[in-house]
Write a structure and sequence with these properties.
It contains 3 helices and 4 strands; from the N terminus they run ββαβαβα. With 92 residues, it is an alpha+beta fold. It has one domain (3-90). The protein has a 4-stranded antiparallel β-sheet with strand order 3-1-2-4, sandwiched between helices. A hairpin with a 3-residue loop joins strand 1 and strand 2 (17-26). The longest helix is centred in the middle third of the chain and has 13 residues, at 29-41. The two termini are 16 Å apart.
């Protein structure tokens, strides 16, 4: 089984609101936590007009061998970001 953790993301835009913004895939909960931590550390001190944020809690899902290999290859970054327009390509 090729299991990974999937974290959903939403985009928040000033004056517009929120909308789904894809997901990220991780080999472990620890990778997911570090990915989110790294993301927030790159953010400026003042909130930008538009940004993404995690939505809900990560869930364990099964993915194809090809997707699992891509997530594994992204291990150095602690995960693979999948945008909404790419979801069908990855089956997530």
């Amino acid at each position: 089984m090729n299991a990974v953790y999937k974290q959903e993301w939403i985009e928040s835009e000033r004056g517009w609101g929120q909308r789904p913004d894809g997901c990220s895939l991780h080999l472990s909960i620890e990778d997911c936590t570090q990915y989110i931590k790294d993301y927030w550390e790159r953010m400026p001190d003042d909130p930008p007009d538009e940004y993404s944020k995690p939505s809900g809690h990560p869930i364990l899902i099964e993915v194809s061998e090809a997707v699992y290999k891509e997530v594994h290859a992204a291990q150095k970054r602690h995960g693979l970001r999948i945008w909404n327009h790419e979801r069908s390509k990855y089956g997530v």
